[in-house]
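are you around this afternoon, could really use another pair of eyes. what follows is a protein written twice so to speak, once as letters and once as structure tokens for the fold. i want to understand how the tokens follow from the sequence so walk me through it. anything you notice is useful, everything is just below.
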Amino acid sequence: MELTPVGSGGRQVIERYSAAGFRVSGIVYAGPVLVFPDTTLSWEGAAATSESLAPVVSHGDVEILLLGLGRRMSPVAAALRQALKANGIALDAMDTGAACRTYNVLIGENRRVAAALMPPV
């Protein structure tokens, strides 16, 4: 799915997503990714756990984490929500397409947002 980027001001913008991966600011990533305003990383493990999302906490400048769970929603462990909240990060889980679109809107508003995205398979 192609997305229409909003003015990004030099920040990472999600341009496309598919079952194979993502294109972020002109670079193609196979598989799951963690997208921050200043960088994009392959998401090792791609499971919504405190351990796999540690880079979000250590990034230090995130107030909202959008969790793209593929094509369908699934429950997020309360312990994960609590761990992120303890670090000042609100978690918003949704399908991957919605997470990509929401990330682009929030980054266009200069919000302190990150996205943990699983391909929509």
